[in-house]
Each structure stands twice: as C-alpha cells, then as structure tokens.
C-alpha cells in the first residue's frame, strides 16, 4: 500500500510543501529523538509506555544515581542494550540514510543513544547524548570500551566481568555508560558541530522528539533564526509545533518514506 494513503489530506498537502523545501535546499539537517525508534521496539522516554513512566529519571539517569547505586544503573542500561540488540532499524531510519546519499549536504543530529541510525547506513551522524554501546571510565582517564554489536575491535584489558560484578576500567575505576545524563554538559565538539550544522541549514527536519530537553530542543529555533525552513514530524503536538513552518502529523516510519517519494 502507498504509505501516504494512511495519512490525512492535511498531511498530504504539507508533504508537498515539505518536499519542495527539501528539494530546493543546499544543506539539510535532521534532528531525531526517541520517536523515530519507537516502531523498532525501543521505548521512548516520555508518553505511554515511555521509560520515565516505569523508572524515575532521577534514580537512573544522572551521576548522583550512578555514584549511589552503580549496579542498579548498570542493570537498567544492560536491559536497554538487550532491547536494542533485539531491534532493527525501521523505514524511518532507512529513509534518512538514503536522504544522506541523495542530497548534496545532509547531517543527522540525533539525541538517540541506540545506534540504529548507523545500523541503517547513515554515516554523517552527530550523537548529542552519546551511545549506549560505549562505556567510558567514570574517572575519565580516557579509556573507552565499544561493545556495539558491529564492533569487532576490543580492548583486551577492559571487558565485562562475571555476572553480578561491575565493569571496571584498566585504572581500577568503574566504567559507566558513555551517555549524557541530566546536569552533565554535552561534549563541546559534538555540540559545536550540531550548532554549526543547524545554523547553516536551509531545512531542518525535527523527527520524533518531544522537544523538552535542552540544548537539543534549541536547535530548530537556532536554524529558523538563521533562515532555515523548519519541518516537524511527530505523532503528537510538541512545544516546537507552534513555531515550526510545516507540521507533518504522523509516524515517522510512514511520513519519511512518503516525503522521500515526493522528492
Ligand atoms: C513519534 C513516534 C513515531 C513517538 N513517529 N514520533 C534550558 C532550559 C531548561 C532546562 C535546561 C536548559 N538547558 C539545560 C537544561 C537542563 C536539562 C534539561 O533540558 N532539562 C529539561 C528536561 C527541562 N538539560 C541537561 O541537563 C543537558 N545538559 C546540559 O545542558 O548541560 C549544561 C547544563 C548543566 C546543568 C544545568 C544547566 C546546563 C543534558 C541532557 C541529557 C539528556 N539525557 C537523556 C538520557 C540519555 C541517556 C539515556 O538514554 O539513558 O537523553 S534524557 C532523555 O531525553 C534522552 C533523550 O535523548 C532526551 C530527549 O528525549 P526525546 O528523544 O525527545 O524522547 P521523548 O520520549 O521525550 O519524546 C518522544 C517523541 O516521539 C514524542 O514527542 C512522541 O510523540 C514522538 N513519537 N512515536 C514520530 N512513530
Ligand atoms: Zn580509567
């Protein structure tokens, strides 16, 4: 079935306008959030079935929680890794990977830590909040352990211990997930790159994010103030919906292929 058939007439009109903006753009940025991975089976944070409905962020997604109870935090991240390992990129991820190959300059800025964009074939990716498959030394001695399912190179000194024990760095400190927790600063180079790309974009696609978490949530407005057309793809209204130029209301796994079909 043509994916557009499932979308409202209003969305179909907006799709035409969005496709026109993208086709005329030199530089396109996509900012993605948890919603793009929902159909792949990766839970979002907020909303029905979201992680924050089942778990309290302050008990799991901050440094104080890790220092207080690293075993609990690692248990949660290991469970999430398992969920992600069982998931596959969906039509939305695949579509963005194709847009990167097709458009003159396309950058993917993601808040997601699941690695599904890379698995789908995207290459030019800015991971704002880190990656769940990487661990780093909690004392920041520089050691990084990459356990992505597709990563074959391993640091032989630094690996997961017996079940029940916590992973340790070669320096003796604990390893922690290489993700950005609340209250932690984003990597300066990573954030700088996202700001440069958003500031230079002619079009920014904002896909599957609640637009509540900063500084990521400020990127669409930054792009708009620098002259970009702003397009939101989401199943629900968000605080960003009011200020974007085009709203495409629907699931990204349907809307993105429908948009691509019009390019
Ligand atoms: C679909 C769909 C489908 C579903 N198709 N759509 C300025 C103002 C106010 C506060 C701050 C500010 N600057 C900084 C702050 C503090 C804080 C913050 O933003 N707080 C707000 C919550 C108020 N920010 C920080 O602390 C950041 N650090 C920082 O700025 O450092 C400097 C500083 C420090 C201290 C003080 C001040 C400045 C760090 C933020 C780190 C966020 N970390 C997390 C966890 C990552 C690790 C992990 O995964 O465990 O990142 S929190 C969580 O939220 C995760 C996500 O990346 C992030 C965003 O969530 P996202 O992706 O938007 O998901 P959801 O679930 O919220 O939304 C899903 C959406 O999809 C929904 O809209 C659905 O409708 C939609 N959807 N199915 C399309 N099929
Ligand atoms: Zn170390």
Number of helices: 11
Largest sheet: number of strands, sense, barrel closure = 6 strands, parallel
Q: Which fold name fills CATH's third level, the topology of the largest domain?
A: Rossmann fold
Q: Biggest sheet, strands in spatial order?
A: 3-2-1-7-8-9
Overall pLDDT level: 92
Instruction: Give the ligands present.
Output: ligand BJW, zinc ion
Low-confidence stretches: none
Task: Note down, in words, how this protein is organized.
- The chain is α/β, with parallel strands linked by helices and 263 residues long.
- Helices cover 37% and strands 17% of the residues.
- The chain has helices at residues 9-23, 35-38, 51-54, 57-60, 63-68, 70-85, 91-102, 116-120, 188-200, 219-225, 252-261; strands spanning 27-32, 105-110, 125-127, 130-137, 144-146, 175-179, 203-207, 229-234, 246-249.
- Helix 10 links the parallel strand 7 and strand 8 (229-234).
- It starts with 8 loop residues before the first helix and ends with a helix.
- Residues 33-35, 38-39, 44-47, 50, 61, 111, 113, 129, 179-185, 208-210, 212-215, 233-236, 238, 251-253 line the site of ligand BJW.
